[in-house]
Structures are given as C-alpha cells and as structure tokens.
C-alpha cells in the first residue's frame, strides 16, 4: 500500500512543474515577437525620418505660399513707405524664388505666383511715377507729306492724359506711361542702346512691319498688339509679356515669359522658369541665339544664368491633358532657326576679310571680262552661219553673256571700292546706307548668272529645231545662184559641208529630194531631162546625186557624186554594201554638236563664275554685318559678329516677299487707311521714343 501512495504523490508533484515549464515557454515567445515588432517599427521610423530629411523645407508648396504672402506684405509696406529701391530688391528676390520653385509647384500655384509678382511690379512702376518728378515725355509723330493738290489735314487734337489708366492693359502692366519704347510705327528700323535700356521698363505697342533691336538690359519688356514685326532684345532682368501679337519673330532672354492672345509667332527664348501661353495658337519656340557685342555684360547685369534655359518647357493654360502635347505650340526644327553662318570677328579678322574681298572682286572683274568675251565669240559664230538658221533663231544666250559680263565688271568694281574703303571708318560711313540695296542687287545678279548658265545647257532643243529648219531652207536655195539675195547660198553650204565634213540636213539622201541644180544648166531639149521633170508632180529635176562638197577626200576611190544609187553606172560598185566616199553625217548633227559643245563649255565656266560671285557676296555680307554690329564705332578694335542671314531661310524668304509687295504698293494710295485715320480724328502714327 505504501508504494502506490508514494507513486501518486510523485505524480502530483510533477504536474505543477510541467505546468510551470509550459507557462515559462509561453511567456518567452511573445517577448521575442514584441522585440521583432519593435525593431520593425524602429526601422520604419528611421526610413520615414530619412525620407523627411531628404525633403528640403524650401521645396514645399506650403513654404512657398507662406513666403509669397510674407514677401507680398513686405513689398506693399515698403511701397507705402516710399522705399522703392528696397521694394525693388525684395521683389526681384521674390521673382527669383518663384523661378527656382517652378519645378515642384502645381501649375495653378505657378500662375498664382506669377500674377502676384506681376501685380507688384505694376504697383512698383506706378509708385515710382507718383513719387519721382515728372520727366518731359512726348510723342514724335512721323507725319506723311501731303500729296500735291490735296486738301490740308485738320489740326490734330491734343493727346490724352498719359497718366490715365488704360482699361485694355494686359495683365501685369501698370497704368502709367512707359519709360521708353516705340508705338504706332510702320515699316521702320527701330533701335535702342544699352544706356537707354539699362533696368528700364520697355513697351512696344501697335507696331506694323517693323524691325526692333534692343541691345541692352531692360528691367521688363511688354510687346502689345504688334503684327509682322521682328523684335530682338537683350537679356531682361525680370519678365516679358507678349500680348495680342501675330506673325512676329521674337528673341529675348528673361526670367519669366508670358504669352497671351498671340498667333503665328516664332519665339527664340532663354527663360529660367517655364514659359506660359494662354489663348494662343501656332506659337513655336527655339533656344535664344541672338548675339551682339556686349551681351555677356548685359547678362551679368541682368542676373540671368546663361547656362540655364527652359526654352522647351511651356505651360499651356488652355490645355490640361497630360498624355497628349498641346496643339497650340511647337518646337522650331533646327534647320529652320535663325542666324545662318554666324561668325565672330575682331579687328584683325575684319581687315583680312576686307583685303581678301578686295582681291576677289578684282578677280571677278577679270571673270566678267571673260564672260563678255565668250558672249561676243558666240555671237560672232552664230552670225557667221545665220543663213542656215531659221529666222526665229534668237541671240538670247550671247546677248545675255555680254550683259552679264558688263554687269559683273561694274558690280565687282564697285564692291572692290567698298571693301577698300571699309578699312577706313570715315570712308566706309558713306557706303553704309547703300550696302543693303547693293547686296539685294547682287543677289538678283547672281540669280541671273545661274539662269544664264542653265540656259547654256538647255538650249540644245531649240537650237536643233532652228538648225533643222534653216538648213532645209538653205538647201532649197542652193540652186538660186542668179537670184539676188540668194546667190551666196551655194558657197555658204559648200563651205559648211567641207568645214564640218557633213552632207545634207540629216544625211546625203536629203539632196535626192530637192532640185539643187539650177535650170540655167539644164538642157530642156534632152529627153532624160524632160522625163525626170515629168516624173514628179512638182516639176522638179530630181537626181540621185549630191554636190561636190559632200565628197570625202580621204576615200581612195574617185568621188561618185552622180547616180549614187545606180550600181550599173559604175564599175565594181554597190552602194548598199560598199562604203560610200561621201560624208554620211548630216550638217544639222554636226552644227548641233559644235554649238552645243561650245555652250556647254561656256555654261561650265559661267557656273564657276557664279560660285565665285556667290562667295564674294557671302563675304561682303559678313563684312557688312560685322562692321554694322560693332558696339562702339569709336573703338575699331572691339569684337563684333557677322552673319549671312539674321533669320532662318523661311523667315527671310517671307520677309522678302513682303518687301516686294510693299514695293508694288508704293505708288498706290491706300484709301481705306486714309478713311480710318480720318475717323480717328486725323491722327498719324507716332513713335514713342526715350524721354
């Protein structure tokens, strides 16, 4: 009984120990899981902190909006206090902040910031006008001269108050008058220099067909309601606004570009933020490529980064789709961009270019003498054989060569004088106004030379028909040795056949079809003569013979010129198998090869002359533009830039067509325009200039 009792007690003691062991293992397992969960949470927290550490506080829209509100209040307070310089500095810093923040802001936030900055700029300009003393400001009107016999114009009304706000001003413009700019001009060359533009606000408005060059660093630029204009501007410190323009070419560098209500324009831009367009169509963009002496200095004063250009990043507020590009703007293909063959020059290079062009022009004079001589020689050769050419034969080619030779001597002699005088600025000044018309004439002259060269190669067809008809008529008159005015034809054709070793028009059988023996030398009492005359309806004496001049003296057999097709009339003779001792080639082919070869050689020479003339014209254009772009004429040693075409080929061709249209309308009275001017109170276009 004792043993079972002890076993039961031992079992009872072992049960609590087992329960305690399982409880201990149950406690250890949750602690391990909790430790792993804690480590995971710590890792997630570390990743979050690392990610937050990588986000710069300044690159948050909340920070930008707060900074915008803060700076706006500060600028408004400074404007109210009259601290304009400090307000301008803070406004420029705000503009830079907006430019740097564009990459992480939403489009509506960018637009909000641009509107705020533009409004503050307008308030700054208006406040300046209020606090600073009024400057003398006036419009200079370009009045048209009255036509003879026309009624005098009524007196012009006084101009409206310039300080009054314009309700039609575009977004961001102030109501005060512009400090400088141009307005209302037509077909003018307008230009402002660095001293006139430095940190000033520029307005170009209502220009038509003008070319504007702004070489300097303005503070802002506004281009309004312009059509058919070319506007080239240096670096702008802050913003550029283009509003209501059409068919224009614009080139500018700026911090901010806004384009409103603009159509069919080409914009060459360097912008540090993203360009903005609204209500626009057919606007194309390309990188800013205009250059002029001193542009690097203007970039430094403007504060723009020359290496930063977002010219191809454009926000269209009228196109919200992100998966498709906007149809309202595009990029200009590289081959259609402006400034063709731009070259930098210093004084040494300009002198070498002028000296080389002077020498090339005199070589071109000798080339012109050569062209004149070729035309004279060709004319003499055609005159020598005019009897065997049709009356419709024209001396267009030799006359054109003679004319081109004379013009080449005149043009290149004049160009040589210009190149020689270009070494002296005082002498070159008198030629400067004539260079553009002269280059235009040179372009037309070179086109004419190329056309004449092509005509030399393409005249074979008309020459062939002329010779065919002329030779046919000449062979008919071969027998008329007693007829006044035709008695020389026999000698002419005989000498022609002997010289060119030919026979007939197309061949010796052409003589079988005509009566080439004069009736004076025919015995009409002979039965043979009568039978031959009666054998054809025309009553002509036709024989199978040829004139003596068709005989080939190199043939070993005596010449058989009569009864050529009669084998029985000659001993050991077969005209079908044996080679005849007559010239087989027709005179038309012989003359055609002679003149065609001559004109082809002349055409090749004229093409070489054309290439040489083109190189001279290109060099003269480079010399002209390099001298014209000198920033300081009093310093001849300064650098400059030359180019062949300031715009692309497409724009240049378009501009040339417009100029031709203007020349065509030069003597026409535009009644509609005159009536519109009368309705506006007799106002004439005015150009606003620097006050």
TrEMBL record:
Question: Where in the cell is the protein located?
Answer: Cytoplasm; Membrane
- Which residue ranges does UniProt annotate as crossing the membrane? 357-378, 399-418, 438-459, 592-612
Membrane topology term: Multi-pass membrane protein
- Answer yes or no on keyword Magnesium: no
Its chief place of residence is cytoplasm
Q: Which GO terms describe its biological process?
A: post-chaperonin tubulin folding pathway; tubulin complex assembly; visual perception
A single Gene Ontology CC annotation of this entry is:
cytosol
Keywords attached to this Swiss-Prot or TrEMBL record, sorted alphabetically, are: Acetylation, Chaperone, Cytoplasm, Membrane, Phosphoprotein, Transmembrane, Transmembrane helix
Q: Which residues form the signal peptide?
A: none
Instruction: Give the family per the record.
Output: Belongs to the TBCC family.
Q: What is this protein called?
A: Tubulin-specific chaperone C
This chain's source organism reads: Lonchura striata (white-rumped munia)
């Amino acid at each position: 009984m004792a043993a079972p009792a002890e076993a039961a007690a031992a079992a009872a003691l072992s049960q609590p120990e087992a329960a305690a062991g399982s409880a201990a293992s149950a406690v250890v397992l949750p602690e391990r899981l909790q430790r792993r969960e804690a480590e995971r949470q710590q890792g997630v927290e570390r990743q979050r902190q690392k990610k937050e550490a990588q986000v710069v506080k300044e690159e948050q829209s909340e920070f930008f909006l707060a900074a915008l509100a803060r700076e706006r209040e500060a600028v408004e307070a400074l404007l109210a206090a009259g601290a304009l310089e400090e307000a301008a500095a803070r406004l420029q810093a705000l503009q830079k902040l907006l430019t740097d923040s564009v990459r992480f802001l939403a489009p509506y936030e960018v637009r909000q910031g641009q509107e705020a900055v533009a409004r503050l700029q307008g308030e700054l300009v208006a406040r300046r006008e209020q606090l600073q003393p009024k400057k003398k400001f006036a419009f200079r009107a370009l009045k048209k001269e009255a036509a003879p016999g026309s009624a005098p114009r009524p007196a012009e009304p006084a101009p409206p108050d310039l300080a009054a706000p314009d309700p039609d001003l575009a977004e961001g413009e102030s109501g005060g008058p512009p400090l400088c700019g141009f307005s209302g001009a037509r077909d003018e060359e307008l230009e402002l220099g660095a001293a006139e533009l430095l940190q000033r606000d520029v307005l170009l408005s209502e220009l038509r067909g003008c070319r504007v060059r702004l070489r300097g660093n303005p503070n802002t630029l506004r281009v309004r309601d312009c059509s058919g204009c070319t506007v080239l501007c240096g670096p702008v410190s802050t913003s550029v606004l283009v509003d209501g323009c059409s068919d224009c070419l614009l080139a500018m560098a700026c911090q901010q570009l806004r384009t409103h209500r603009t159509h069919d324009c080409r914009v060459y831009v360097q912008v540090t933020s993203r360009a903005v367009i609204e209500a626009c169509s057919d606007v194309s963009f390309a990188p800013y490529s205009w250059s002029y002496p001193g542009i690097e200095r203007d970039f430094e004063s403007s504060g723009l980064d020359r290496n930063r250009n977002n010219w191809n990043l454009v926000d269209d507020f009228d196109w919200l789709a992100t998966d498709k590009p906007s149809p309202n703007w595009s990029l200009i293909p590289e081959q259609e961009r402006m400034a063709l063959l731009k070259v930098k020059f210093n004084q040494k290079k300009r002198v070498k270019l002028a000296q080389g062009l002077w020498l090339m022009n005199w070589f071109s004079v000798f080339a012109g003498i050569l062209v004149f001589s070729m035309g004279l020689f060709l004319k003499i050769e055609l005159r020598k054989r005019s009897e065997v050419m049709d009356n419709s034969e024209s001396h267009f080619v030799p006359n054109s060569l003679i004319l081109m030779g004379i013009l080449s001597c005149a043009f290149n002699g004049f160009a040589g004088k210009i190149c020689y005088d270009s070494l002296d600025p005082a002498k070159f000044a008198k030629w400067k106004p004539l260079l553009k018309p002269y280059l235009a004439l040179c372009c037309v002259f070179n086109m004419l030379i190329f056309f004449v060269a092509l005509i030399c190669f393409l005249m074979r067809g008309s020459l062939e028909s002329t010779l065919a008809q002329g030779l046919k008529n000449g062979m008919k008159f071969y027998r008329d040795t007693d007829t006044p005015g035709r008695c020389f034809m026999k000698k002419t054709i005989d000498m022609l056949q002997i010289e060119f070793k030919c026979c007939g028009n197309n061949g010796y059988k052409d003589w079988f079809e005509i009566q080439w023996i004069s009736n004076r030398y025919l015995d009409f009492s002979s039965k043979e003569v009568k039978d031959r005359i009666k054998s054809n309806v025309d009553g002509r004496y036709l024989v199978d013979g040829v004139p003596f001049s068709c005989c080939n003296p190199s043939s070993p057999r005596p010449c058989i010129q009569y009864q050529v097709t009669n084998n029985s009339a000659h001993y050991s003779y077969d005209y079908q198998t044996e080679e005849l001792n007559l010239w087989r080639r027709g005179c038309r082919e012989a003359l055609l090869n002679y003149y065609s070869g001559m004109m082809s050689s002349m055409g090749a020479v004229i093409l070489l002359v054309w290439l040489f003339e083109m190189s001279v014209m290109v060099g003269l254009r480079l010399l002209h533009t390099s001298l014209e772009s000198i920033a300081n004429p009093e310093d001849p040693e300064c650098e400059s830039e030359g180019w062949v075409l300031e715009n692309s080929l497409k724009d240049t061709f378009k501009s040339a067509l417009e100029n031709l249209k203007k020349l065509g309308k030069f003597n026409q009275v535009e009644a509609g325009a005159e009536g519109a001017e009368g309705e506006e109170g007799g106002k004439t276009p005015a150009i606003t200039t620097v006050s």
